[in-house]
Amino acid sequence: MTLLEASQLQVYVKDRLLMDIKHLDIQDGDRIGLVGRNGSGKTTLLELLVGKRTADEGSIVSDATCELLPQLKNTNTTKSGGEVTQDYINQSLAKKSDILLADEPTTNLDTANIEKLEKQLQRWQGAFVIVSHDRAFLDSLCTKIWELDEGELLEYKGNYSDYAAQKELEHRQQENAYEQYEKKKSQLKHALELKEKKAQRATKEPKNVGASEANAKGAKPYYANKQKKLRQAAKAIETRLEKLDNVEKIKEPSPVRMTLPNEETLRGRIILRLNDVTGLAGDRLLWHTMNIEVKSGDKIAITGNNGSGKTTLLRMIMDESTGVTVSPAVKIGYFSQNLDVLDVNQTILENVSSSSNQDETLIRTVLARLRFFQDDVHKKVAVLSGGERVKVAFAKLFVSDINTLLLDEPTNFLDIDALEALEELLRDYEGTILLVSHDRRFIERIANRIFTVEKNKIQVFNGTYEAYKQYEPQSQDPLEDDLRLLETKITAVLSQLSIEPSPELDLEFQRLIAKKRELE
User: Over the stretch 357-385, which tens digit does the pLDDT of each residue have?
Assistant: First the structure.
């Protein structure tokens, strides 16, 4: 049953045509994910469908009840962002409308609450349209994807992964079409050159022919006629060239290979230690005393519920708090959505170049990977959207004189296209990364180690996020935990002894070995 139908929708922003949708419909039971770049009109479309906004042209017909869960929520409250989002979700779901329109419903939610919302929506009786940059969320819920692209609405069957596979197929088909186009164009140009050469030769007096024969009646008209036919053939080839459907070449991302400070010195070495470090927020315990080592090149995701202490851990590392030892060769860059690092009166390129030792070609390559192409880099930061400014702030940090990235929720405000571009850069990055994120797909694509903060402990898992989700820890004897902790301390002391031997360290090593034997 059709719940809502719209046709010939047009929306203008000043003189720019933002949206030109020929037709869309929502059927009973539809699970639709709405995707598109920042500024493509996703929020505007939801407001049109719910009646909060009127299109400049077109019509929307519906007898269904419709509820909008907005992206921008009331923040004039003492509640946390996650609590505010959860309140809005509960109020919207309680109305049990025929159509639920949800604009970035996972904003500020931690992983546990995102998974809770997934279960709530899986039980939802009506239809829904969800705007989200969380690809795992869309995969879990959607059976249809709407894409807003250059004002048009394109529909794809399946969840987000199915949509991405279809887009990849389209990408390959365009690549193939471009190759065929270039091949045909080359063949026609070659044929045209041959015809033109033959036409030029036809105007010359033929060799090995006597003067009387060359002046014979009919000889000159023969060569003139031959030249005319060749010219006509050449003109026909030119016409075919002009009528060839132009196929654009797909822009492939250029590789990014930066020279990082102290790269060779740090390769394969332990660059960071946390020894007997306890997490506290005032008098509140975040996590018990723990010991952790980080190697150069590690890509670590720090996960856990809101308020568990993830950001505190990053800040303790950044500030080299008590118990935190950082190699002198390490140069840390910290990203926390702080856009104050940008000068709004400067261009994108000026902002990013101002703190970088990299050459302009590499900086432009990084910006292109983040979808700032050619003259885009000369835009003033003042005219950029929030998501675009986040990308510029990240690019500024990324190309600065650092070799270790601490990233606190780097995916906030990014559309999926920008998020995937950020992923590509981080996967290729040869330095060390510690990142806090609730985006499961983002973590899955980047991390090779997982630090989970829960129940006042930090658990370390050496492996990918996918392997971590499938891992089932065995019940352990407390004695085994003590032994493991001792072994970590022994390794740390041995490492220090190899660099700066001292009688005190040697005594500590002997004490730890004796303690280990006693436990064994």
Answer: 999 999 999 999 898 998 999 999 999 88
Task: Please give the pLDDT value at position 255.
Answer: 65
Q: Could you tell me if residue 108 is left (phi over 0), alpha (psi between -120 and 50 degrees) or otherwise beta?
A: left
- Give the list of residues 6+ apart from residue 51 with CB closer than 8 angstroms, or none: 60, 66
How would residue 347 be classed by pLDDT, with cut points 50, 70 and 90? Answer: very high
Q: What is the dihedral angle through the alpha carbons of 292, 294, 295, 297, rounded to the nearest 10 degrees?
A: 150
Same domain, 272 and 358: yes
Q: What is the pLDDT of residue 509?
A: 80
Say which residue the tokens 């030249």 belong to.
Answer: 227
Place of tokens 């070449």: 249
What strands, in cross-sheet order, belong to the sheet with 432-436?
Answer: 332-335, 404-408, 432-436, 299-304, 449-454, 457-462
Q: Tens digit of pLDDT for each residue in 466-497? A: 999 988 765 556 677 677 777 778 877 776 77
What DSSP letter does each residue of 163-218 carry, written as one string? HHHHHHHHHHHHHHHHHHHHHHHHHHHHHHHHHHHHHHHHTSPPTT--HHHHTSTT
Nearest CA to 307 among 517, 482, 79? 79
For 378, the domain range is 263-467
Q: What pLDDT score does 443 carry?
A: 96
Residues 81 and 218 reside in one and the same domain: no
d(CA 223, CA 470): 82
Strand partners for 26: 4
- Using pLDDT thresholds of 50, 70 and 90, give the confidence band for residue 223: low
Cβ 69 vs Cβ 88: under 8 Å: yes
Contacts within 8 Å (CB) and 24+ apart, 73-78: 73/107
Angstrom distance (rounded) from CA 433 to CA 330: 12
The answer to whether the CB of 458 falls within 8 A of the CB of 287 is yes
Is residue 429 pLDDT above 70, yes or no? yes
Residues 401 and 299 in one domain: yes
Is there a single domain that holds both residue 427 and residue 488? no
Last residue of one domain, picked from the residues 425, 448, 467: 467
Separation of alpha carbons 20 and 343, rounded Å:
36
Verify that 305 and 446 share a domain, yes or no.
yes
- Whole-angstrom distance, CA of residue 29 vs CA of residue 2: 10
Answer for the pair 399, 352: CB distance below 8 angstroms, yes or no: yes
